[in-house]
Amino acid sequence: MNLSKYETLAAVMEQGSLTTAARELGCTQSAVSHSIDSLEKELGFPILKRGRAGVSLTAEGERLMPAVRALLGAAEQLNQTAASIRGLDAGTVRIGAFTSVAVHWLPGVLKEFQADYPNVEFRLLNGDYHDVEQWLSDGSIDIGFVNVPCAVDCECIPLMADRLLAILPLNSRFASYPKFPLVECEKEPFISLLESSDHDARRALEAAGVKPNVRFYTKDDYAILAMVEQGLGMSIMPELLLKGRTDRLLILPLVPEARRVIGIAIAAGSKAGPATRRFADYVVRYVNNQAAG
């Protein structure tokens, strides 16, 4: 079976447009369009709807995509295994990560891994917890960094317990406090991630029986940091995310304490390709070394 048409379809859905997919694949837009048209004729039904806002799947395409992603994932596992047998250690590992991991862990892990296995390629997708779980579920990625427990049925390895901290403007009235009482979130202007993303703060607040005085919602972690720096309110963020961003913020431990557990989820579990499994091992080692150092 020629997988190129299915790879093109997956790229189009990942990028959301024919033009961007063509750039990603290193070909022309007309070549991408021709590949999709040919696949639709081969299958006997339309897959994509084209519009000014980009492309989307037809009902038939929605039913097809899980099988397409499973097919491409199985092909990649086959390629990795064959490469390992030949001693080439090659393949492509698709990774999904949220902001703090993408910024503070992934560059270091990738540098170490590439030094030992230069023939392995990577595709990185950045999003929030919900995005990563969705990518794991639909087969868009091989490995995802997740908030444990993970809602997706896959092999999950806990990596680190990460403290949640209160972040406030430097001139906050809490500047003399050794810790921040969570109950004060009911009075202070609170800046929140969208509900689909804000698992950490929401769990901590719900466990304490606190309803925050939310004034702003955003999906961007660093937008929250900038807004707090400007005195627009306070928020609750993981310690890893705050690394290197402490000079213009008042950061206090919470009362009661709260933590998130970061883990790495392997979509195919024991059936994952050698390069995928080896990369997971490097992640575990890197995080353990960071904690020890």
Measured by DSSP, the beta-strand proportion falls in: 15-25%
Give the helix proportion (percent range): 40-55%
The helix tally amounts to 10
Please write the string of helix (H) and strand (E) elements.
HHHEEHEHHEHEEEEHEHEEEH
Average pLDDT across residues?
Answer: 90
* Largest pleated sheet: 8 strands, mixed
CATH hierarchy class name of the domain at 161-261: Alpha Beta
Radius of gyration: 22 Å
Low-confidence stretches: none
CATH topology of the domain at 161-261: D-Maltodextrin-Binding Protein, domain 2
> What is the straight-line distance between the termini?
49 Å
The count of strands amounts to 12
Q: SS-based structural class?
A: alpha/beta
CATH architecture of the domain at 161-261: 3-Layer(aba) Sandwich
Shape category: globular
